[in-house]
Amino acid sequence: MAKILKIYPQNPQENFIDEAVKVLQNGGVIIYPSDTIYTIGCDIYNHKAMERLAQIKGIKLDKQKFSIICNDLSHLSEFTKPIETSTFRFLKTHLPGAFTFILEANRNLPTAYKGHKTVGIRVPDHIIPQMIVEKLGHPIVSTSIHDDDEILEYSTDPELIAEKYDKLVDLVIDSGYGDNVASTIVDLTSGEPEIIRQGKGIL
């Protein structure tokens, strides 16, 4: 059964953040809040955890398009090819924020991303994932939690999310009601921003 931790962004308790980080370090899969929707993720460098995440999503690991959650732009060079100064300035203008930016990937991506030519980078404007990444020391991955309801695309109630994923994940961070609008996906691989999916972020 998944453990539920109530961590609120107004005053996040550091020992609870440490607990979430420990779950990730031990190969766990967690559900956590962001500046958009609740998401599910794991340690980007734990291959078994990535396999679990793909299994939960019902996809093969080599077909995944999990976004990488960073707490700032310092991790960019680890995973992406060198970017133009103008592109970097554009990213700095819009991050942290409700965007997923598609960039050209380099060869340093973890094995779960083998063969991927591009990668989605997120820096959410939410203190909880930022603190988790900072304390973990490297990025985590993110994939959306879709609702089974045909009308509602994303679940907003963390208690219902915890109930649904109780036997699939190790930890659910309850940070109050989430949003029901996902991030805006912007492709920057051509040098010019191209909106792939309009979401919460407005360019």
Automatic annotation (TrEMBL):
Name the Pfam families on file. Answer: Sua5_yciO_yrdC
Which residue range or ranges hold the YrdC-like domain? 14-201
Mention one GO molecular function: double-stranded RNA binding
Q: What sections of the sequence does the record tag as coiled-coil?
A: none
Question: Can you tell which superkingdom this protein's organism belongs to?
Answer: Bacteria
Q: Which InterPro entries would you find in this protein's record?
A: DHBP_synth_RibB-like_a/b_dom, Sua5-like_dom, SUA5_domain
Q: Which PANTHER family match?
A: DHBP SYNTHASE RIBB-LIKE ALPHA/BETA DOMAIN-CONTAINING PROTEIN, THREONYLCARBAMOYL-AMP SYNTHASE
**The protein's name in its UniProt record:** Threonylcarbamoyl-AMP synthase
